[in-house]
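Please annotate this fold before class:
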Amino acid sequence: MSEIFKRKAVVTIGETEVSSDDLSIKLIYPFGTAGITNSKIYIFNPSDNIIAACTGDPSVQVEAGHQDEVLLVLAGECHNHKLIEEGPDLVLTIGVTDKKALLSTAKLNKNFSNQSSSAIIKSVCSDVGIDVETCKPGNDVTIEKFVVRGVREAIESLAKKTESRWYFRHGKFIFESLAAKTSPIVVEENTGLVGIPKRTGDIVSFKTVFLNSITQGKTVLLKYEGEELEARITSGLIRFSSFDNDHGMEFEATV
């Protein structure tokens, strides 16, 4: 019970802020190659102004953790919301998506000549309204001629040409070298590892308590049973609850 008492989440919907200090909040957030389309936020017994804040597809972000360390864990846009009665409670369910779907469907009719791959990426993302956090290709080559029609196809083509990868984190686009990595976050039993990681080829899956510092693209150093394994997070499922045990994280990472 004391651990639950220390949990905290702050949900910001447009300009409206909701804290778990005042209302019960739950988050289910899968992430990976499919973006965050299936992410859900649950707010129990919301006021009318909180419900009204969900109209018009506002921006949504969730900061979560424990009272001494609350970090951003989800950012995107509200694409649907509904009210559900669960016993005595009225639950506001908010569906959150990011720009991954937009990147997959957007079309352009644009030609580039003698421009760097990074310049092309930034231009294309700007044209379709995608915020770029990082654009550091593995090999930022100058391309003599490049034609953009389907945006996703163009991004994937540039990733191959430049030895790079791309993904979204907290609603922002990242294009980086295949060799890029962050300082490893040590994950072991006394820092939150739950059970024994399972490795299949170059993929390792593992579970943790709620560790808000781990997200897509981060490097972890797993320590278990006398072994050490460094891997990069590629997908996961985040569950946060301010009031029950539906709480923790599951990850897949590439060694």
